Structure formats: C-alpha cells, structure tokens
C-alpha cells in the first residue's frame, strides 16, 4: 500500500500488512482522520499545549520540594534534554522502512511484530485514558476553585464540577472532528495558558516578597525521602512527554522528520521556559510548604484569581482533546467515519461514541478524584517504557547496522537505566497508594 504519494497524504483503501518474525500478519488500517496537512508551527503548538496545563504550578510541590534547589533545577534541565532526545529518536523513525508509521503501535509492530503491537497499544491507551481522566479532574478542580472564591456554603462538591467539566469536554470533542481541526483553538489555548501562567507568576512573586524566610529543607524521614525523590524523578520526565508522538507527527506536512524536529525544538523552548519560570518562582515563594495549584492558597485579588482559573478550565478542555484524539481516531477508523463532519451519520456517531467515552472517563474522574497516585503508577509502567525504553531500543534495532559500537552501548545504557527507573517509580507509586489508601473515599470532595 502507498502511504504517501508525494504530498504526504495516503489514498489507498487497502490495509497495510506488517509481518513479524513468526510470519503472523499485523493489519494496519488506513486512518479516517486528516494527515499530512499541518505546518510544523501548528504541531509545535499542539506539543506545547500538551505540557503547559494548569498543573504547571503544582510542579513546585511535586518536583522541587522533594528534590530541593540544586537537584531540582539540575533535574529539570536534564529531564528537558533527555526528553527532547528520546522524542527525536521516535520522530526520526516515522518513515522507517519506506512508509509512514502514523501510530505508535504501528511503528512497534513493524519493528518487533504482533505481540509488541498489542502491548504497545495497551500501554498507550491506558496511559492516555489516565491522562484524559486527570484532565477532567483538573477542569473540575478549576471550576470548584472559582466557586469557592465567591461562596463558602460548600453546597457544590467537586464531583458536581467534574460532571460539568466532562459535559463541556464532550461538547468540544464532538465539535472538533480530528486533531488537525484544532487550528485556531491552539492559539486560544496558548493565550489561556499564558493568562494562567502570568497570573501565577506575578502573584507568587508578590507572596514571595511579602513572606518571611522560607524553609527549603526536604521534608520527611530518610525512608520517605528516598521514595519521594524517586517519585519526583519520575515526575520530571512525565512533565514533558505525551506518549503519542507518532500520532501527532502524522498530522505534519512533508518533510515529516525535519518539520517534526522543528516542532520539538519549539516545544522545548517556547513551551518549557514558562513552565520553568512558574515552577522555580513557586518554590522560591513558598518553599517546602508548596503544595498548591490552581492558585487555591495564593494571595491576590479575587477577580484576578477567578480569571486565571477560568483560563485554566478552558485550556484544559482544549488540551484534553489532544490526548483523546488517538481514541477518536481508532473509533472513527474502525467504523469508517469519513467525509463531512456535519453529515448526519458522522455527527450522530461522534455524539454517541465520543460522548459515551467521555461519560465513562468523567465517571471514573468523579469516582476517584485522588487518581494522581494511580496516575503515577500508570506513568511508571507506561510513560517510561513508551517514551524512553522503547524509543531507545526501537532506534537501536532499526539503525543497528549504521551505529558504532559506542552508539550501541549508549542506547543500551539508556534502555537499562530507564528500565530500572521504571521499576523504582512503580514501587514508589505503589507505596504512595498504600499510604494514601487510608484517606481514600469515592466521590470525595477534595
């Protein structure tokens, strides 16, 4: 099957077959979504929107507090570099073997075979489902933060706001047929994230100037420090990675590799610098007491904080669509949803299927608003393997004959190191779940 006819758009209706070492075929379907239509600049904004969520202020507490100033700053810089490097490895394999691999599982299946195809698919969708659920919790928390600014009656609980957020996310998901159709919304999301980041930065500076001397020591016992350091190290790399790079790269125009590299450099400059600024200033302002996001305990005018939280809510609605798009693509492709987005069949399908998917996601979010502990676990067993272990090993296997002995050793060291990190992060997450389970309650108002 021809995946590309020169302009980067696949036109064949036939399925591609990839054969593994045991000669059992992996069927790779064509996509019902639009591909090869976006500039590197638009894709750069997709990547940036994915990392600059309203939780950016929370990195002060989840990264800087457990690590301290020097390890925290150095860790963020190193995490930026290794994340850019790992993503560039995956990006360079997008056209490996003379064809475009528009899904992460397609690339893994082509290189390893059927089992890897299935495992990669499972890991990726578990990871993306947890991210989607986390975004709905974040959106609901932003709405609740607005509510408590103007009312202290506690009539409205977090699960109610999560339900409202899920409904709004479903409306947006139904209205936007595919990832490339975000276009103008990416600009809107950038403005919204900048509003939140600027407000968080300014109010944190104000608090920091007015506050007494802060405690920057790392809290906890020796044992707890070990586990929180491992967890913080995992959070360092979770902050920069989507686990769906091939799906995003599928939307970019030819030449896909060089354009994707431009988009990645854009993400790790324009996108990362604001995150650094808020993370560092938040830790400077609040020290070891940093444990907030959504400006819930930051001093400042009510209307300013309300504006920031409204921006956080709307940005989250847009960002969720990015991480839900692989599921949408799978469902649309499986059921042949092509043509005009406003066609009755296509619109009704999106209402029923996407609405159903986000209803399930919203129910899980409302049921388990403490999902952060479980997200750390799924990140350890999915984000690490997908982003670092698999990226290095796929590149090693694909370019084996073109790499020097030193380069091969480098990639094997990465595979082993991140394999150990994945195990350590999973153990740390399991411990966190065990400790926090004493306070867990379903449909909690937190």
From TrEMBL:
It is a multi-pass membrane protein. GO terms for cellular component: endomembrane system. GO terms for molecular function: symporter activity. Residues 38-429 form the Amino acid transporter transmembrane domain. GO terms for biological process: amino acid transport; auxin-activated signaling pathway. The chain crosses the membrane at residues 39-58, 65-86, 125-146, 158-176, 182-205, 263-286, 306-331, 351-368, 374-391, 412-434. Residues 1-21 are annotated as: Disordered. Keywords: Amino-acid transport, Auxin signaling pathway, Membrane, Symport, Transmembrane, Transmembrane helix, Transport. Pfam families: Aa_trans. It is found in: Endomembrane system. The keyword Chloroplast does not apply. InterPro entries: AA_transpt_TM. Belongs to the amino acid/polyamine transporter 2 family. Amino acid/auxin permease (AAAP) (TC 2.A.18.1) subfamily. Carrier protein involved in proton-driven auxin influx. Mediates the formation of auxin gradient from developing leaves (site of auxin biosynthesis) to tips by contributing to the loading of auxin in vascular tissues and facilitating acropetal (base to tip) auxin transport within inner tissues of the root apex, and basipetal (tip to base) auxin transport within outer tissues of the root apex. May be involved in lateral roots and nodules formation. This is Amino acid transporter transmembrane domain-containing protein. It comes from Salix brachista.
